[in-house]
Amino acid sequence: MSSQCGSADVTAPKPKGLFNYFSSALWDYNVALVQMLALCPALAVTTTATNGLGMGLATTLVLMITNAIISALRHSISPAVRNPLMIGIIAGVVTLIDMAINAWMHELYKVLGLFIALIVTNCAVLGRAESFCSRNPVLPSILDGAGMGIGFTWVLVVIGGIREILGSGTLFAQASLLLGEHFHWLEITVFPDFQGILLAILPPGAFIVLGFVLAFKRVIDRRRAERRVRTHGELIVLQ
Amino acid sequence: MNELSQTPPAEAGEQRITRPGLLEAWRERVAYQALSLGLVCALVALALLLGNQLTRQRIADAELQDRLAVLRQVLPQSLYDNNPLADAYRIEDAELGMLEVYPARREGQLTATAFQVSTIGYGGPIVQLIALDSEGRILGVRVLSHKETPGLADKIEVARSDWIKGFDGLSLASTPLDQWAVKKDGGQFDQFAGATITPRAIVKGVLRALEFQARQSTAQSNQETRP
Q1: In the prediction, which pLDDT does A234 show?
Q2: Are both B61 and B79 inside the same structural domain?
Q3: What percentage of chain A reaches a pLDDT higher than 70?
Q4: Is the Cα torsion angle A130, A131, A134, A136 positive or negative in sign?
Q5: Both B28 and B88 in a single domain?
Q6: Res. B7: pLDDT tops 60
Q7: pLDDT, tens digit (0-9, with 9 covering 90-100), for B114-152
Q8: What is residue B160's predicted lDDT score, i.e. its pLDDT?
Q9: Largest CB tally within 10 Å, which of A124, A184, B56, B217?
Q10: Where are the transmembrane segments (chain A) (predicted)?
C-alpha cells in the first residue's frame, strides 16, 4: 500500500473472522486518520469533546443503518444508478434520525442540531456503501459500519478534547445534556479561570490539532512495525 | 464520486456471477434503473412522511417550551397572568421588517411587551428577544440564535458573559440617542476584543425595539386624544 493517504484507496482488510471487520476499522483503516474521509464534520464540530462524541455516535448509527439497507439491496441496485439511489437512502435515514433526535432528545438536538444534517454530506457514509456494502452481506456490513463509526467517534472525541482543553480549559462540558444526568462526573474543569487559547476553538485550530493527531498515529504505527520486525524478523510495511 | 468506485476490494468481493440470469439482465435495462430509482425515492419519501407525522407534535411542543423558557428569562413572572406566546402577533414595520410581539398582560392590563427582532451580525442574522415594560424601560435582552464567531463574539450569550444584562433598566429617556452605540462609535456600550460588528448589531436591535414601542405608543395616544 502506498504511503499516500488520499481518498478511499484503502480497501477493506482481509477478513479473519467477522469481528475483524469491526476491529480493523478502529485503527488500521480508521475513517478519519487513514482514509482521510469525513474531515469536514470532523473539523467543524470538534470544538468540544462532547460535540465530537455526539456527532460520532450519530454518524455510527447512520452508518450501521445505511450499511445494512444498502447491503440488503446490493443485488437489485443497478450500478448505473447506484449513486443517486444510495444518496437517496442515506439522506432519508439521516433526516429520520434528525427528526427523531429533535423529538425525543431535544436538549441534545440543541447542541448537535446543526450538524446532524451534515452527515448526509459525510463522504465516509457513501464511501462505505460504495466500497463495502455493495459487495458484502448484511452482517459484515453492519459490523463494518459500527467499526468505522466508532473509529470515527474516538478520533472526534480526541480532537474535540484537545481543542476544548486548550480553548476553554474544560473537558466534556455539557456531557450530561448528551448522555443524561448520570454522566455529570464526566464534566471536568481542567484549568479553572482559564481564558483559553482562542486559536484552538477557531477552524485553524482544528487543522493544527488534526495534524498532531495524525503525526502521533504515524509514530505509534512505526513503533509497532519496528517491534514486529524485531519479534518476527519480518518486515511489514504498514504505510 | 467515481474515485470511490475505482478500487474495488478484490478480496472482500462476493461473486456477483453466483446470482444468475434474470436480475442480472434486468439490471442493465433503462426501465429497470428508472423504476428502481423511482421506487426507492417513493419509499424514502413515504418513510419521511411517516417520520414527520410521528415527530411533528413533539418537536413543536419542545420548541414551544424553549421559547417559554427564554420568555421567562426576560419577563418577570409577576408581570403577567396570560400566555404571551398564545397572544403573540406579527407586525410589519417599515424599519424593522417583520417582528413578533409577545404582549404580557396582568388582569387584562398590558404590563410589558417582548419583541423578537432580527438584525444582521457578522455571521448572519442575530435573533434577539427584547422585553420592555409599559414605560419603555428594558426588562431584559436575550439572544435566541446567532451564527457569530465562537470565542470572539459569542459573549452575547447570557451563558458566556453578563454583557447582555448591561441593557437592563435602560430606556430612551435614561440614555440619550447618541449613546445608543458601541464605544468605538462614540456610544456607551462595550464592544468585544476582536468583535465590534456583533455588539453593534445587538445595540441596533435593542434601539429599534425601543423606538418601535415609542412610535406605537405615540400613535396610540394620538388616537386616544383625537375623539
Answers
A1: 59
A2: no
A3: 90
A4: negative
A5: no
A6: no
A7: 988 888 988 888 989 999 988 889 999 999 888 887 667
A8: 76
A9: A124
A10: 26-46, 52-73, 85-105, 111-129, 141-162, 194-216
Who's near B224: CB < 8 A, 6+ residues apart?
none
Contacting residues of B for A167, CB less than 8 Å apart: 151
- Inter-residue contact A98 to A54 (CB < 8 Å): no
C-alpha cell at A64: 450501521
Cβ neighbours of A80 in B, within 8 Å: 28, 33
Q: What does chain B come to in residues? A: 227
Domain range for B127 is: 74-220
Mean pLDDT taken over chain A: 83
- Give residue B12's pLDDT: 42
Using an 8 Å CB-CB cutoff, list chain A residues near B28: 78, 80
The predicted-structure confidence for B85-110, as pLDDT tens digits, reads as follows 888 888 887 776 778 888 888 888 88
pLDDT score of A88: 92
A interface toward B at CB cutoff 8 Å? 7-9, 11-12, 14-15, 47, 75-81, 83-85, 88-89, 91-92, 95-96, 99-100, 102-104, 106, 110, 123, 126-127, 130-132, 135-137, 167, 196, 198, 201-202
Q: Are residues B125 and B154 in the same domain?
A: yes
d(CA B25, CA B166): 73
For A178, half-sphere exposure in the C-beta direction (CA atoms, 13 angstrom radius) is 21
Complex ipTM value: 0.75
Chain A residues whose beta carbon lies within 8 Å of the beta carbon of residue B41: 88
Residue B115 sits in the same domain as residue B158: yes
In three-state secondary structure terms, B145 is: strand
pLDDT value, residue B45: 95
Check B44 against A102: CB less than 8 A apart: no
User: What is the interface size between A and B, counted as CB pairs within 8 Å?
Assistant: 110
Q: What is the three-class DSSP state of B9?
A: coil
Co-location of B49 and B161 in the same domain: no
**pLDDT at A239 (0 to 100):** 46
Q: Name every residue whose Cβ is closer than 8 Å to that of residue B206 and which is 6 or more positions away in sequence.
A: B128, B130, B138, B141, B167, B180
